[in-house]
Amino acid sequence: MALIDPSLLKSLLGTLAGRFDVDALDTCDSSSSELLRRAERGAPAGSVIVADQQIAGRGRRGRQWLSSPENSLTFSLLWRFSGSASQLSGLSLAVGVGLVRALESLGASDIRLKWPNDVLLRRDGGYAKIAGVLIELASDRRGTQVIIGIGLNLQRPAGELPQPAAGLSEAMEHLPDRHDLLASILVALAGVLETVAVDGFFGLKNEWQSCHAWQNQPVQLLADESEPLTGICRGVDHDGALLLETASGIQRILSGDVSLRPA
Ligand code: ATP
């Protein structure tokens, strides 16, 4: 049986229970791929797939996301917005704010955000990735459909990773029950997604910056086909663009196809 019981989860969602439709799977390729297929068949906004085991968990640009049933919480949420995708440029940052709100409300500390889509734990003078967010958008004349994939490590993942990784267990004394954890995250996500629907990322910018791992710190931006760009990270703009102060002035970086590293 899957590790999440949808009826128990529903009872924890309080007044938002009617906004979510949760299905828990023992295994699938990736919760986002499965939800995308269901969305194409007309699944409603608020559909959630929690997958204990992902055979092909995905990060950005086809990268792999590692997870294991007992040590991870991996799920995807379907949402719909009335506007175009261009109004949703800060969405992965908004989701990061929702994750920080939820984790802090459960007692986690030292949780920070990395542009554009990672949640980090500050430890030993450095940072380790605790969760990743993958946003997939599709627009048509009715609006924009969004699939929000979240992989959260409950324990530090086993296996070799190029960057340090951590588990939520390192951020709090006692891990919450995974139902309480998922319910808190869904409630927090509903909050930030409503804000985005009204104001875009604008209303969440200050909160994002207050959790930003490298605010006013020297960083490097790595891209596949160009030289690294070095500068001071000045946070983000109202649309979620990264603000990098370089020798030639402030540059706005909108594309997520780059990797940020401390310099
Ligand atoms: P970058 O750091 O270059 O910006 P990213 O961290 O945004 O990339 P994502 O696509 O979000 O990359 O996540 C995939 C990457 O995360 C993988 O390439 C791997 O390095 C790392 N990773 C995979 N699984 C985990 C995990 N469970 N915990 C932490 N990091 C992971």
Topology:
Layout: H1 6-12, E1 21-28, H2 31-40, E2 47-54, E3 72-81, H3 91-105, E4 111-114, E5 118-123, E6 126-140, E7 143-153, H4 178-199, H5 205-210, E8 218-223, E9 226-236, E10 242-246, E11 249-253, E12 259-262
Parallel strand pairs: 1-2
Antiparallel strand pairs: 2-3, 3-7, 4-5, 5-6, 6-7, 8-9, 8-12, 9-10, 10-11
Helix pairs in contact: 1-4, 3-4
Bound molecules: adenosine-5'-triphosphate.
Adenosine-5'-triphosphate (ATP) is lined by residues 59-60, 63-67, 117-118, 129, 132, 151, 153, 157, 161-163, 165, 259-260.
Radius of gyration over all CA atoms, rounded: 18 Å
Q: Terminal Cα separation, in Å?
A: 46 Å
Uncertain regions spanning at least 5 consecutive residues: none
The class by helix and strand makeup works out as: alpha+beta
Using the coordinates shown, work out and report the CATH topology of the largest domain: BirA Bifunctional Protein, domain 2
Our count of domains comes out at 2
- CATH secondary-structure class of the largest domain: Alpha Beta
Anisotropy-based shape: globular
Please count the beta strands (DSSP E, at least 2 residues each). 12
With strands numbered from the N-terminus, the spatial order across the biggest sheet is 1-2-3-7-6-5-4
The number of helices is 5
Q: Hetero groups bound?
A: adenosine-5'-triphosphate
CATH architecture of the largest domain: 2-Layer Sandwich
Sheet with most strands: 7 strands, mixed
Task: Specify the helix fraction band.
Answer: 10-25%
β-strand percent reads 35-45%
Could you tell me the mean pLDDT?
A: 95
State the order of secondary-structure elements, H for helix, E for strand: HEHEEHEEEEHHEEEEE
